[in-house]
Amino acid sequence: METGTSRVKRGMAEMQKGGVIMDVMNAEQAKVAEAAGATAVMALERVPSDIRAAGGVARMADPTVLEEVMKVVSIPVMAKARIGHFVEAKVLEALGADYIDESEVLTPADEVFHIDKRDFTVPFVCGAKDLGEALRRIQEGASMMRTKGEPGTGNIVEAVRHMRLIMGQLRKVQGLSKDELYAEAKNLGVNYDLLLGVHETGKLPVVNFAAGGVATPSDAALMMHLGADGVFVGSGIFKSDNPEKFARAIVEATTHYQDYKLIAEVSKNLGAPMKGIEISKLDPSQRMQDRGW
Amino acid sequence: MIHPSGCRIAAGNQRMKKIGVLALQGAVAEHMRSIAAAGGEPVAVKQTEQLDELDGLIIPGGESTTIGKLMRKYGFMEAIREFAAQGKPLFGTCAGLIVLAKRIEGQEEAHLGLMDMTVARNAFGRQRESFETDLPVKGIEDPVRAVFIRAPLIKEVSPEVDVLSVYKDEIVTARQGHLLVSSYHPELTDDYRLHAYFLKMAEEAAENR
């Protein structure tokens, strides 16, 4: 009997496929998310848009938030640790979090080293803007990836950019000849064997979700079309006018992303989505996607 | 669809069996790959109308609350009960096992409620307690590699249910006529024997129809 094997950790993410993982800040929101059909929740003290608004250093949530949420839902509960902050991650593991997000939404604790994620029984999800970044995180032991997008903006443009780039790079690597892979491994800053696997399958070896700016059911469906295995929705749900309805609509649009009549139906009378931020208006120091390497 | 062996049809000169994988949420692609490798023709099922052409249906792992909700919303509860009533086989893994069970501990409402057993969700604990192990299964020669992820357990079965394997005294694989369940994920390994077992159930069911 073995726990924490790569199959067990990656397999847990496989079970999330086609699903929506929702940010929640308390037990009540967690129940709404579960009732709406979320496949997991991310327990946070503040959603990304509030983190933006508050400024200052954003850290791991108070453990009581995680405990409260774990008590009321039967679906998996995820939690965020700062980039490089392996003690926050160990604390989350000790608390029983089902998945840890080493997240650029929080203020990085280390500007050079990410967490050695192989050193944990609990699996990790990490963000990436491109294939090299995704493979570097997988090399460190990440069992699930997501686009970084630009969290808390309600603007899908960055998640689209990252997903398009990753999918395009996957196709490119698949088309390289074997001897070209060595130079590409050097370009991407990743190990050759990992890249060889990508070359042979044309896919990342782990599940890849969309995250960072999903604000409407159509946004979620768009990301599924672009190759996402599922969707994280952060500020989008509980910053909308009618979270319950909104959450259900996003779940259905993700499952039936090719059924446009259905997406039209679930998009009716949803009320206002979160307000959103134009990316070019964002001060460079406020760009969360530039955290990590 | 061509089997890796190059055979276009299954043994006995029958038409290759079409096995659906309920594709509302969860590990759909893995089951499709395993069915193809075991010699069947996999179909991703998103609409109830697709059930008519199938010889068997897999309800995959995922989140049972999500899958159950989407099944209700899109008319799959009635459609799959009807499918099962025709004697067509169903295979539920992990969340799929929960969906098939008549009774779920701590929950008032079952989902499909077809298989006469009581199940407990997340019976091993949280994700850090998830594990893999070698598991002997009745009817399969050598142990299978069983991957348990926040897995459910079968706490109680009626006499009609055949227990195919136990892990630490708890039931983890079972069959009741044309219904097969496992609390673990055979689709996450390269061992296709449980899928082959299910394909055989589909072939036998087709002969008896």
From TrEMBL, chain A:
Gene3D superfamilies: Aldolase class I (3.20.20.70). D-ribose 5-phosphate binds at residues 23, 152, 213, 234-235. The keyword Lyase applies. D-glyceraldehyde 3-phosphate binds at residue 164. One of its GO terms (molecular function) is lyase activity. Belongs to the PdxS/SNZ family. PROSITE patterns: PDXS_SNZ_1, PDXS_SNZ_2. Its EC number is 4.3.3.6. Keywords: Lyase, Pyridoxal phosphate, Schiff base. In the presence of PdxT, forms a dodecamer of heterodimers. Catalyzes the formation of pyridoxal 5'-phosphate from ribose 5-phosphate (RBP), glyceraldehyde 3-phosphate (G3P) and ammonia. The ammonia is provided by the PdxT subunit. Can also use ribulose 5-phosphate and dihydroxyacetone phosphate as substrates, resulting from enzyme-catalyzed isomerization of RBP and G3P, respectively. It comes from Paenibacillus mendelii. The active site is at residue 80. Pathway: Cofactor biosynthesis; pyridoxal 5'-phosphate biosynthesis. It catalyses: aldehydo-D-ribose 5-phosphate + D-glyceraldehyde 3-phosphate + L-glutamine = pyridoxal 5'-phosphate + L-glutamate + phosphate + 3 H2O + H(+). This is Pyridoxal 5'-phosphate synthase subunit PdxS. Transmembrane segments: none annotated. It holds the Pfam family SOR_SNZ. Residues 6-211 form the PdxS/SNZ N-terminal domain.
